[in-house]
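Complex record, two chains
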Amino acid sequence: MSAVSTFLTRTKGRDGQKGTVGLQDVLTYGYLIFGVLVILAPVLWTFLSSVKPERAIDNFDTRLLPMAPIEQQVEGIGLKEVFLYTNEAGEETEVIKTGPTRKLTDVATPDQPTAVFTVPKESLTVAEEIRVATENYLDPILRRNGQENFTFFTYLFNSVFVTVVATVITLLINAMAAFALSKYKFRGRLTFTLLIVATLLIPSSIILVSLFFVVWSFGIFGSLWGVIIPAAATPTGVFLLRQYMLTIPDELLEAARMDAASEWRIFWRIIMPLSLPALSVLAILSVIWRWNDFLWPLIVLISDPSAHTLQIGLTTFSGEFDSDFHYILAMTVVSLVPITLVFVWLQRFITTGIATTGLK
Amino acid sequence: MTLAGILALAIAVLWLGGGSIWLLKNRGYRLAQTHVFAMDLIGFPVEFAQRVFGRGGVPYALLMPNLLIFGFFTFLPMILNFYVSFTGGSSIVLFDRPWVGFDNYSGIFDCETILSPRTCANSGFNFWTALFNSLIFVAIQVPILCVVALATALVVNRDIRGRGFWRAMFFYPVMLSPVVIANIWNWVLHRKGVLNDTLGGTADAITGLAGMTGFDIFATVLMAIFLLITLERAVRSSADPSLAWTFVFAGLIWLVIGWANPLSLLGMASSFWLGLAVAAVLVWSVATVRPFARGVVLAAGVVAIALLLTIQFDSVFDFGGFRPVNWLVTPNTGWPMFWLVFVFCWSHMGFYMLILLAGLQAIPRDLYEAAKMDATRPARAFWRITLPLVMPTLIVVLVLSLIRGFQVFDEVWLLTGGGPGRETFMLVQNIYETAFIGQTPDYGAAAAGSVLMAIVIAVFTFLQLFLTRRQSEL
């Protein structure tokens, strides 16, 4: 008891000794708990809701676990919902309703559906069990039960295709440009550097309309390439890689040139492997950008359902089935899971990588 | 087959076919060196440039793909934007578009007064409504985002348990796509959703508690104890008052003034803002170590105790029946805009937090050690060391969040769709709807809107850089 009271009343010592709790610590942990509530709780709530049966979702059942009414096959009647009847003595029996719900309702036990007796409706409660509604996930994915329009695997393929191809192209051409800007002295180097800085200052949303004209006249409007190509060259990527490549000693390049290696081989064999840390940061950034990209794919791909990415598919799906929250939530979780797994796997790397390289 | 298709085919044939022949002719490859051959083939244009122009040609070849994409998909559209904004019609073939001069712009400026969008012609109404909504959004969102991001960065920069986890947690929403974010918050904010359910449950429970006899006395005594403890802690040491405790104390004062509502005697509506102002003055005077800080805190304590006696706690906590709010669609309540700001901050805060965290970690440790040697209070160390040194990073964050704030589209489009009415209709949505939604797309007006939006963003960015320039030099 005295240990508890010392724990509760002790304060931070003058010289800040370890193991004491000051008010600053209390406020800090209070803020962190608040953060959990605001950030993780909605995501977890969505996940928990996504496994609830349709009925619970439609009734906005706010209990944590997915509860579904128990249904039982009754001879001669079919599938009936089971209720719990509590009699005056407090004993509970499983019953099924044999007539409409009135003040005094006709019920019977599932074993003897013909032996009807009446009970007051207040003494009946719905018998429930925990049931994970896998159909929320399986119906849209397997395209059954009226969910034929949601071509999940097409969307997934498109999203993966855009993300992977765009990231590979971005890495390759940005590394090439960064190599040129960091390891060569040539006429116009400053001009090119400034040009690339200038693109940082042009927000993509103010060139939407004219970019549409350009992409359309290239004939890639409506195709996945119309999403991949325009965003493949990123000023951020060029700078990130350039800063990193500046730290690679020139002697390595000179030594390779002594051995008569061509410039391309120097790039591929020396520069690329040595800038792997910066390349992987850019790869992660690029994956996040492409996977979550919304407005431009919406403009380019909206007219062709077979070219929708997961994000666009999910948007039209949410729009079409405004009331089918159970499917929407399940598909939200499906598109949330890959990025979450990547994040959990690489989180330390991502946070330090972005913190050290700065801009987005 | 389109022009781009033919071009792509020609390049592919030249690159792969020509490249293979050239490489095989000039270099011998063994069968085991297939991967070396593939590598050389990817870089064939670079190899070719080196052979033809020498080493001087290599950087140009290396820069080529990047510059082509920047040129065609960033600079060309930038210039085209001006051209398109001077043309009319709905043709998507550039040369079929009739030149209309300044018609698109004069359409936007065709108003009796710009300050009231209702007096404008159609495109003007859309643009000015969008601009004012964007300005409101940015004005609320940018300061909140910056303060919250800085506070979070300070918290996760402390020596706390599981620091990596907390940093990752605050960053996590940045990873989520706008569609996922919108679906999550749509679900939480639904009229029958979990937020209303929790609020309703809490309100009912508190109302029930407040109805019990003796609640008023009990709450008054409890509040008085809280006030006295925090006051004692705040002014306990002989030196300056403690900032952390003053912070808590200020929060309590805010509550007391809000509940006691002294302004109602003067017939004024809300004491909420008065309470906030008093709390802010308290925190400010302690944080900046004013000589009168101690007196202010003590005076606030006396006033708070006096006000406390006038509070009828049972009526303060009687919420009556809670009516669920339709957060995202109820007009004229400000809730849709509030939740958009909230969701935007929720999803972007982690990124700015990381940038600020990097800024905080770049501050040399020995500065704090020197401050500790001089027995500097943590609050003073924050104002005199942390804030000035993190200022350059904070300005980067300010400018970035301002530019991003003007460009907000995804969350708005998916959560409110610009509604209710036009309450959350913003600049990018205006461009998108004018150009890509509806039967007759008006690319000219959309491009004119983009040009004006670019000007607005540029003006605000430079204004901000100009205003913060002097501070960052200190």
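Note: DSSP finds 20 helices and no strands in chain B.
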